[in-house]
Amino acid sequence: MSTTEQTAPLLEVRGLSIEAKGPDGPLVLTEGTDLTIRPGQTLGLVGESGSGKSMTGLAMLGVLPPSVRVRAGQVLLGGTDLIALPEKELRAVRGGRIGMVFQEPRRSLDPSFTVGDQVAETIRAHREVSRKQARNLAVELLDRVRIPDPGTRAGQYPHQFSGGMCQRVMLAVALAGEPEVLIADEPTTALDVTVQAAMLRLIKDLQEELNLGVLLITHDMGVVAEVCDDVAVMYAGQVAEVGPVRDVLSAPRHPYSAALRDATPDECRRGELLQAIPGQIPPPSAWPSGCRFHPRCSLAVDACREAAPDVLQLGRTRVRCARATENLTENSANNSTNNLTENSTNDSTENSTNNSAKNEGAGHGAR
Q: Region Disordered: which residues (predicted)?
């Protein structure tokens, strides 16, 4: 599904700005973020660490750290602004209509309760069922996220599960409230390659099966190419470019989008050096004037340094770049880039995906 299809949005982020308390006053962490998630669509939110991706996801659920707050903007779920909801009403949405999978599943799971009890607790918080029904539904959810022998594993504790299996448990918890939207924040962090592939395939399958809207937060363009329909590229608290994955990867309009793509390992470019992005993303206290990427951009001109660029609509893509209409990055798109999107899901990946849950589960019982 592309952004051009006339499907009513499930979730819309409009002009979202987030700020934190700083030693010399408020620090703006994100500014003017616009995102749209539709039923059956996976939107990737990609960028380096420190770009504001995770803060955006936390703000959408109203779980920002105490020193951080939403400065402006709306998060609309079915027309209801979640930012304006009282905490009691927001709790019904959080874990209910919106589920979230966090980066570090072991920190999210309570070590003193079995995984089955933790899934069942979430079910009872959002559905009117008995304890026995919740327990049975928890086992069904563990089976749905492809945990082997779910009836037995439901009675085990988080320390008896591998990292990949803990992430599957967290996915079951996220699905327990029958959500319309799933937010997955770096769900494959610290997992080995085969387990990563299995987790991504599982999320994609569940999205298609349940017609979920999915926001996938990641730093990896390869992950975006594999499972996302659309992508929003974030840099220094702003969305630099957003559009269909194929358009952004094959002909990126923003130099940062092109740089992220070219820094992504590609099987078809084996033996070639990856193109590292010079410098580092600046902290919010040191954001430059003009385009925030200009200190690291080889294509920057005086206009990029002097004034913040407007957001332009170019075909199916929106881009924040003063030189976007010059197609500066179009010539850098080559066959290997197309292969990122065409070859990311192939037979070998699917085979490893189908087998990895069995192999992983077999080797990680009580330990």
A: 330-367
